[in-house]
């Protein structure tokens, strides 16, 4: 099913910048919450809380969640992919650093673009989009690439797991775009993923022997609430609404903005150093996004 729009308008661009900022701040929230909640258990709690919140929101808006619409199989698949992505990400971070992990995680837009060639023929990739995405990824490498230099030890295990997580991230978006899920509400699409991950992640945490919640300070609780309300509920509902309305490949190019926003948030909220590389990366990512999303003459309005 072709998207309603063929290119991103100002409203979509504004929302994507807002969401990428929220997802960047999430990196800080996860760091704070990790001081008191195990990673996979934290992801499970986030899914449980967000499931309840999005379900209540959908009921208040009278969204038809239980109508037979042929989305059950695709919804469960999307939920399993969603759960696998976060499980692999959090497990991988036990072996490798967050900065190395970012590089491998943000290969996801390229997998999305490659999958779109076969699964989303109505969203053709132009050479400018490939070039823009490559430039934006170059900005991520400027920011974190030096962490790939030097002895890696066992970091390759985490790198590999996060690289696979990136494939699952792309596969989740492709599942939404290429199946009946693209015709249902953003709330229902998200609830499939949240509910399945809420069931899968807590038992996985127990199987991994995580201590669970071991130091629930006010800061840890605040970080978890932010993830539930702002990230997994509000921003994800908005993201899946955008995926229904706009080309996924154009939206994906904005994801490169998230790690840069995360570093900026770390500087503002945690006092982490902001080096010239941060601003160089922001410039490269911004230029890459502009090139990838610049409308062709026939799409100009």
UniProtKB/TrEMBL annotation:
Subcellular location: Membrane
Cross-referenced InterPro entries: AA-Vitamin_Transporters, EamA_dom, EmrE-like
One GO CC annotation: membrane
Alphabetically ordered keywords of this record: Membrane, Transmembrane, Transmembrane helix
Transmembrane spans: 43-60, 72-95, 101-120, 132-149, 161-182, 189-208, 220-242, 254-271, 277-293
Membrane topology: Multi-pass membrane protein
Domain EamA, chain residue ranges per copy: 11-144, 157-293
Main location: membrane
Pfam families: EamA
The family this protein is said to belong to: Belongs to the EamA transporter family.
Name of the protein described by the UniProt record: DMT family transporter
Organism: Pseudothauera rhizosphaerae
